[in-house]
Write a structure and sequence with these properties.
Elements lengths: L6 H9 L21 H11 L24 H5 L4 E5 L2 E2 L2 E2 L4 E4 L5 E4 L6 E2 L5 E5 L2 E6 L7 E2 L10 H11 L9 H17 L3 E5 L7 H7 L1 H10 L1 H26 L5 E5 L12 H22 L4 E5 L8 H7 L3 E3 L9
Parallel strand pairs: 1-10, 10-11, 11-12, 12-13
Antiparallel strand pairs: 2-3, 4-5, 6-7, 7-8, 8-9
């Protein structure tokens, strides 16, 4: 067992397959390791901590422990990894904070542009560009996507007409001003703390965007029946991600220890798609991202978030260049 390490040393050693002084703890460093605001507020009450709770990820209503005063909850829970998130999360900038009351009566601070509309049945809608896109049921505690903007696409020609418009969207075209802000955040986190820093671009995905934008059933059908259309879509994602990621690494590569990709390839009993389909559509894209990160910033490790049973795909992930898997979901088959 090593002598006591700083959190950053602990995480770096672990990702380098060296023995740390203890197992590192990820407490809310990204969208996928977060805690719902209601549960988080109850934890703070139990611990006697009264600082305001922030939520930058308002669709799942997750707390942002890194925005707590003095990182008190984060420290009490033994956290080792701070996030370096995008400024724009869930369609709105993380600024101009204002209070919002949760279903249990507790309060969190949300971005100023967070303004859900209440329906007659008590459900809440998040409206973007005049269209309700996410809904929290009256008895719910987070928002579900209800609008799939590409659900009407039926042909390659239709997709090709839409892609130029998508290229201008913030999700696929990061502004220089946002990169400058994230660079400032990263520099401060690296210099002023001894925590590991996880780059969380949030939109660095290949599998999930298909379901989010086309719809689950539609995208599964496209994967099976329209390979030319899917390859066009994957090429678009790869080109967009590589351009954004190159700029992102130029801005923050010196400050982060790892970066996370997010795609749920698993279900409870096994992968959602065959290994053959993964190799055809997704592995080349994943490899392109990993190659860019490893070449541009060799010290930065690449984490892949994928829920479920993905055991058959793990060798493929490794071959593509993934360094670590989040999570190892032991309740799923063969994990």
């Amino acid at each position: 067992m090593r002598d006591e390490m700083t959190p950053r040393e602990r995480v770096v050693a672990t990702l380098n397959h060296e023995e740390p002084d203890r197992v590192p703890i990820d407490f809310g460093s990204n969208f996928n390791t977060g805690v719902n605001v209601i549960a988080y507020n109850r934890l703070k009450k139990h611990l006697g901590i009264s600082s305001p709770t922030h939520s930058r990820y308002v669709i799942p209503m997750l707390a942002a422990p890194d925005l707590d005063e003095g990182l008190e909850v984060f420290r009490r829970m033994g956290g080792d990894v701070l996030p370096l998130p995008r400024l724009f999360a869930d369609g709105m900038a993380s600024k101009d904070w204002k209070p919002w009351t949760m279903k249990d009566g507790s309060v969190c601070l949300v971005p100023g542009r967070f303004d859900p509309v209440e329906n007659e049945d008590g459900a809440l809608d998040l409206v973007f560009q005049g269209v309700p896109q996410f809904r929290m049921p009256k008895a719910g505690h987070y928002f579900d996507r209800i609008f799939m903007p590409l659900s009407s696409v039926e042909s390659l020609s239709q997709l090709e007409e839409i892609l130029p418009v998508l290229r201008t969207h913030r999700a696929f075209n990061w502004a220089e001003a946002e990169l400058e802000i994230m660079a400032e955040w990263g520099q401060r986190g690296h210099r002023e703390t001894d925590y590991a820093i996880l780059g969380d671009p949030y939109t660095l995905s290949f599998y999930q965007p298909g379901f989010e934008l086309f719809g689950y059933e539609k995208f599964f059908l496209l994967l099976a029946a329209e390979p030319e259309l899917v390859h066009c879509w994957m090429n678009f994602l790869t080109e967009s991600h590589l351009a954004n990621l190159g700029n992102y690494l130029d801005a923050v590569g010196d400050y982060i220890n790892a970066i996370i990709m997010v795609d749920d390839y698993g279900q409870q009993k096994g992968p959602q798609i065959s290994t053959k389909m993964f190799r055809e559509y997704f592995k080349p894209c994943m490899s392109s991202i990993c190659n860019l990160v490893h070449q541009r910033c060799p010290q930065v490790k690449i984490l892949l978030h994928s829920c479920g049973s993905v055991a058959p795909l793990i060798p493929e992930f490794i071959e593509a260049g993934i360094d670590a898997l989040n999570p190892v979901q032991i309740t799923a088959d063969n994990m």
